[in-house]
Design brief:
Mean pLDDT: 76
Radius of gyration: 21 Å
CATH class of the largest domain: Alpha Beta
Strand content: 5-15%
Order of helices and strands: HHEEEHEHHEHHHEE
Number of strands: 7
Strand order of the largest sheet: 3-2-1-4-5
CATH topology of the largest domain: Nucleotidyltransferase, domain 5
Number of helices: 8
CATH architecture of the largest domain: 2-Layer Sandwich
Shape: globular
Distance between the termini: 40 Å
Oligomer: single chain
CATH superfamily of the largest domain: Ribonuclease H-like superfamily/Ribonuclease H
Length: 276
């Protein structure tokens, strides 16, 4: 296709950098094992006015998950993580930028708010699952997913137009099919044959991990205020209600490592409308 277009005098709109420019950011060799490192990011483009959250395995180049949401949000990354955990398992490490969702700076008591506490939840989820979270302020350091966005901004948009899709909901239903086809065609074979993903948690346990934890203090009657309601804490002490992306809630006080799943006790709380 490139040769045909070039012979017809049609020049590619994507300029290729000179070798001197490429030398400023030498390429890093791929990781050896599938699941050893997963690069994550979000692309702000003409995706129906939304942000495309995605993940790609560093060793194989397999697209691990995609999710469209209104803006780069914790909800978008949690939906993406649901796909990774449910289909592949727990990776050894995630590599993202220094977005506030990943990179949490401890604030003083006066500066601390419930809204800002939300941004610590992704890091908390990684800690509970035993996933190393690596952040960088250099986009070239995670060039694999940056190049993926370059391909998707032309290829994926063309696919969505050809299929007549006009809404975020329609696109999200199609993305798993697109992801599987893209990975089948372009993924490479990693050097290490054995997968480094830890066994996948159950759907109930994934809900536990992909939650937004809030700190609450119980009163003398073991109740605590949450979203205009006063549910009771099962332990009769300070608790951390943790609404999930599917609307359920749990009181979480445990911290579990990789491969150790929670024996969580569910507390019935009012449905939580996760910010989109």
């Amino acid at each position: 296709m490139y040769r045909i277009l070039t012979e017809a005098g049609i020049i590619s709109p994507k300029k290729h950098r000179a070798a001197k420019e490429r030398a400023k950011h030498p390429s890093r060799p791929r990781r050896q094992g599938f699941g050893e490192l997963v690069q994550i990011d979000a692309s702000i483009h003409n995706w129906f006015g939304a942000a495309l959250h995605g993940a790609i395995d560093d060793a194989a180049g397999t697209v691990m998950g995609l999710w469209l949401g209104k803006g780069e949000t914790l909800r978008g990354y949690y939906e993406m993580m649901w796909q990774i955990l449910g289909k592949h398992g727990i990776p050894e490490a995630l590599y993202g930028d220094r977005e506030s969702i990943f990179y949490f700076k401890r604030l003083s008591g006066k500066e601390q708010t419930v809204g800002r506490n939300v941004h610590a939840n992704f890091k908390r989820m990684c800690r509970q699952l035993g996933i190393e979270l690596i952040t960088t302020s250099c986009s070239q350091a995670k060039g694999r997913i940056e190049r993926l966005w370059g391909a998707f901004q032309s290829r994926l948009m063309s696919e969505l137009r050809l299929k007549g899709m006009k809404t975020i909901e329609e696109a999200n239903r199609y993305l798993p099919e697109f992801t599987a086809d893209y990975s089948r065609r372009f993924a490479a074979k990693p050097d290490m044959e054995k997968s480094l993903f830890a066994p996948a948690p159950s759907p109930k346990d994934i809900d536990f991990y992909l939650s937004t934890e809030f700190q609450r203090v119980t009163d003398n009657g073991s109740s605590f205020a949450f979203q205009g309601k006063s549910p009771k804490s099962p332990a009769g002490r300070n608790t951390s209600p943790a609404p999930t992306i599917h609307g359920e809630s749990s009181s979480s006080r445990r911290k579990r490592g990789r491969n150790k799943l929670p024996d969580n006790d569910k507390t019935r709380l009012p449905p939580y409308h996760f910010p989109r």
